[in-house]
């Protein structure tokens, strides 16, 4: 009669096959969850269930690398340790790259656990795990430890991929935001060159990183008056570009109905405060010229002083107020007035013109700019702007670190 009772060797083989099948099923379930883009807490919960119910791991600590430190993202069983203490204890084992027994370890934290399991990518440690109250047979120990390491590794890779995907989305969103901001700003930048019987204008705008916060404008008010403005909006991106667009619309609206520059600045300040709640500000220089009286009225609102060159003399136009958008009520507001001689050159610029990384012993500051204007003040506005940039690129050899805007006018 044939004996159908399995031998002990067959029992062990069947147990091993069933264990392998369970491991594959567990990996399959986790992989399916990852493919469905399951949330991080769901993946962590699945890992904990597998460790507790299938592998009988009684205590578990799971630390993952985050900004140079390790954060504990999963823990159960035993008395919970302070994260810093746990982090420090695991870092003492940073050279270990495969599961290792903690039997006999003298560290008061580590000796409470049975095994240390590291997760590496090349030479970088991505995560650590500590397991305790772990009872398994000698024959299956290596298999179980390797399976635990594989399972944790799968979860870590999934979390890394989520992180990379978020960073990619953020980078794409930022790139699109910059593109939109550049489109908005390009619509705001008016003429580059203009000339008529009373004024000749040359302008240069050089954004430092595709999109900047600089703005300038020229408005013909009537047959004998015109107004211009140069401004620098704090911040970058779409929000700064939209603030500039709103500022331009407000400037055009108030300039059409207000004769007094003081009232225009006061209204613009209130508008910026209303739009930004004090979180952004604008520095600007605004001026209005009357061709009949040859009088120039101006207000400098916390901006770099416009430089006036006439008959060999250089004057800085500094009267005005503080930046707009910073205070509900401007603390002071003074309007300047000056008579303009025929042939006067006015150089308006943003602070980026002076923000250059020095090269060697070359000096470039406000005083050097004034000297350059005095030496080149007879050039046409467009030629003056180009000569100034050539001087910076070739003579000073400085590297710009901010947006550069130059608006130069010659009044006849």
Automatic annotation (TrEMBL):
* Transmembrane domains' residue ranges: none
Which SMART domains is this protein grouped with? Answer: PP2C_SIG (SM00331)
Q: Which Pfam families match?
A: SpoIIE
Any GO molecular function: protein serine/threonine phosphatase activity
Q: What Enzyme Commission number(s) appear in the record?
A: 3.1.3.16
User: Key word Hydrolase present in the record?
Assistant: yes
Q: Where is the PPM-type phosphatase domain?
A: 192-411
Which keywords, in A-to-Z order, does the entry hold?
Hydrolase
EC supergroup of this enzyme: hydrolase
Return the InterPro entries for the record: Bact_Sigma-Reg, PPM-type-like_dom_sf, PPM-type_phosphatase-like_dom
Tagged with keyword Lipid metabolism: no
Q: State what protein this is by name.
A: PP2C family protein-serine/threonine phosphatase
This protein's species is: Mucilaginibacter ximonensis
Provide the organism lineage as a comma list: Bacteria, Pseudomonadati, Bacteroidota, Sphingobacteriia, Sphingobacteriales
């Amino acid at each position: 009669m044939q004996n159908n009772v399995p031998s002990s060797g067959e029992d062990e083989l069947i147990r091993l096959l069933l264990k392998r099948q369970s491991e594959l099923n567990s990996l399959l379930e986790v992989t399916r969850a990852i493919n469905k883009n399951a949330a991080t807490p769901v993946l962590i919960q699945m890992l904990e269930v597998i460790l507790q119910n299938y592998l009988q791991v009684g205590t578990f600590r799971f630390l993952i690398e985050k900004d140079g430190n390790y954060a504990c993202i999963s823990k159960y069983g035993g008395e919970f340790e302070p994260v810093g203490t746990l982090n420090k204890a695991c870092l003492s084992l940073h050279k270990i790259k495969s599961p290792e027994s903690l039997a006999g370890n003298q560290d008061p934290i580590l000796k409470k656990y049975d095994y240390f399991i590291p997760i590496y990518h090349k030479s970088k440690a991505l995560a650590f795990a500590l397991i305790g109250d772990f009872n398994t047979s000698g024959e299956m120990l290596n298999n179980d430890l390797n399976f635990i390491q594989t399972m944790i590794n799968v979860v870590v890779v999934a979390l890394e991929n989520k992180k990379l995907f978020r960073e990619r989305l953020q980078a794409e969103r930022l790139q699109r935001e910059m593109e939109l901001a550049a489109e908005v700003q390009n619509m705001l930048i008016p003429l580059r060159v203009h000339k008529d019987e009373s004024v000749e204008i040359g302008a240069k705008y050089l954004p430092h990183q595709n999109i900047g916060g600089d703005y300038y404008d020229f408005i013909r008010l009537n047959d004998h008056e015109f107004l211009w403005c140069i401004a620098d909006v704090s911040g970058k991106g779409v929000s700064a570009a939209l603030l500039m667009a709103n500022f331009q619309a407000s400037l055009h609206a108030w300039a059409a109905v207000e004769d007094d520059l003081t009232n225009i600045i006061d209204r613009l300040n209130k508008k910026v405060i209303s739009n930004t709640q004090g979180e952004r500000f604008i520095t600007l220089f605004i001026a209005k010229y009357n061709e009949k009286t040859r009088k120039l009225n101006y207000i400098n609102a916390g901006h770099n002083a416009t430089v006036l060159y006439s008959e060999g003399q250089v004057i800085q136009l500094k009267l005005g107020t503080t930046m707009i958008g910073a205070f509900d009520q401007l603390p002071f507001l003074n309007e300047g007035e000056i008579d303009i001689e025929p042939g006067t050159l006015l150089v308006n610029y943003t602070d980026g013109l002076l923000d250059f990384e020095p090269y060697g012993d070359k000096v470039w500051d406000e005083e050097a700019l004034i000297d350059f204007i005095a030496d080149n003040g007879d050039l046409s506005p467009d030629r003056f702007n180009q000569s100034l940039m050539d001087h910076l690129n070739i003579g000073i050899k400085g590297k710009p670190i901010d947006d550069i805007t130059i608006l130069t006018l010659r009044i006849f």
